[in-house]
Design a protein that fits this description.
Elements lengths: L3 H7 L5 E2 L3 E2 L6 E9 L5 H7 L7 E5 L7 E3 L1 H9 L4 E8 L2 H4 L6 E6 L11 E2 L3 E3 L2 E3 L4 E5 L2 E5 L6
Parallel strand pairs: 3-4, 4-6, 5-6, 6-7
Antiparallel strand pairs: 1-12, 2-7, 3-8, 3-11, 9-10, 11-12
GO molecular function, one term: 4-hydroxy-4-methyl-2-oxoglutarate aldolase activity
Pfam family, one: RraA-like
Subunit structure: Homotrimer.
């Protein structure tokens, strides 16, 4: 994959996200987007991660909450095993020292030691807006440590 600066130079109209930290041992990703809204509860993220990812990118929108971690080492490993191509968490992760050893792209706002609630709160495949950027299921995401680009279609790179 081209770097996000090179993609941005070629497709300057694409919106982008910044301010996400890389936590996985791999930092580059691209793929079709799947969204899940997780209000301090990762029940639906866990449900999606347990399914085959088919090379897609999971956007977990936790509304940038710092109250709980929405992803830890077990779910990250399961996402890798189930062929997801990466996870972006608009919120917190935990088990950072282990996430760094998993060869899988994980981006999040920060880390938090507290585990997520498990009350089946949230929604799967809703349109979300993160930092003013609209992200819809079937959009494409391209990410590396420079930022995350969002496209309504797969780009010809």
């Amino acid at each position: 994959m081209m770097s996000t600066p090179d993609i941005s130079d070629k497709f300057s109209e694409l919106p982008f996200l910044v301010g996400f930290n890389s936590y996985g041992a791999k930092s580059v990703f691209e793929g079709e987007v799947v969204t899940v809204v997780c209000p301090n509860d990762n029940s639906f993220a866990k449900e999606l991660i347990s399914q085959k990812g088919n090379g897609k990118i999971l956007f977990i929108d936790g509304n940038a909450s710092k109250a709980v971690a929405l992803l830890g080492d077990n779910l990250a490993q399961q996402a890798l095993d189930n062929c997801w191509s990466g996870i972006v968490v608009n919120g917190m992760v935990r088990d950072v020292e282990i996430l760094k050893t998993i060869p899988f792209p994980i981006y999040a706002r920060g880390s938090c030691p507290k585990k997520s609630n498990k009350n089946n709160a949230g929604n799967i495949n809703l349109d979300v807006c993160i930092d003013g950027v609209d992200i819809k299921p079937t959009f494409w995401a391209y990410g590396d440590e420079n930022g995350i680009l969002i496209s309504p279609t797969k780009l010809e790179l």
